[in-house]
Amino acid sequence: MSLTNQGIAKSYTKDKLEVGLLDQINVERLLTMYQGDLSKVQVEVIFPDPRRVTKKQRALYYALLGDIYAWSGHSVEFLDELFRAKYTIETLGDVISLSDATESTVSDANKLLDIVIDFMFKWRVPFKYGYELLPKEENWYLYRCCKYRVCCICGKHADIHHVDVLGAGLNRNKVDHTKRHVLPLCRNHHGQIEQYGNEKFGELYKIPTTGIKLDEQTLKEIGVKGDYGK
Questions:
Q1: pLDDT one-digit tens code per residue, 33-66
Q2: Which one in 1, 48, 90, 219 has a CA-CA gap of 20 to 30 Å to 158?
Q3: 3-class DSSP assignment, residue 212
Q4: Can you give 113-165 as a three-state secondary structure string?
Q5: Contact 129, 63 (CB under 8 A)
Q6: What is the DSSP code (8-state) at residue 3?
Q7: Helix H segments across the chain?
């Protein structure tokens, strides 16, 4: 069984953290756990999220449930119970609250939203009410759009647009796409970004057009062929 303690971070660099502990360490317990050799003591550091669930997160969650209701016919109450149950299962027993007096954090709410958005992408649920509220600047959102081949602007089936221009005549199957920034865009929006350019396109749809990089496994799963040996 682990020995737990709490503290306040005093200073930190990239690889060093100084912590002031709130309680004294039970050294005798540590000696027992590590068979008398304290040079082998391991520490797990967890940084709790001090932020509480926001009104924007709550509005997005219920808007997305409205989208799923319009698609499936299941009531918002039923869907709310379903996704909260999924959250409890995936977090090994945690319970989330979205009330004004909640102790649940922004990170907790993002986990719940991840579950809902992944469900919608997987089953191709149309984004009708919640789409405008989606945080399109977040990398996790762009990653899911790429993973499920969903346009990050309108939600239709997407091609993978390379923000970094590949160059005329270059064989895409000979490119290491893990080194390129991409955006998931439908044919219409793909044509628009090439017509307007990245900067004007980003201003038009209020999203950054820097794109994201995908790992080799994800690229292969979504059918982007390339030379990944280099």
A1: 888 888 888 888 888 899 999 999 999 999 999 9
A2: 90
A3: strand
A4: HHHHHHHHHHCCCCCCCCHHHCCCCCHHHHHHHHHCCECCCCCCECEEEECCC
A5: yes
A6: -
A7: 27-33, 55-72, 76-90, 106-122, 139-147, 187-196, 198-205, 216-221
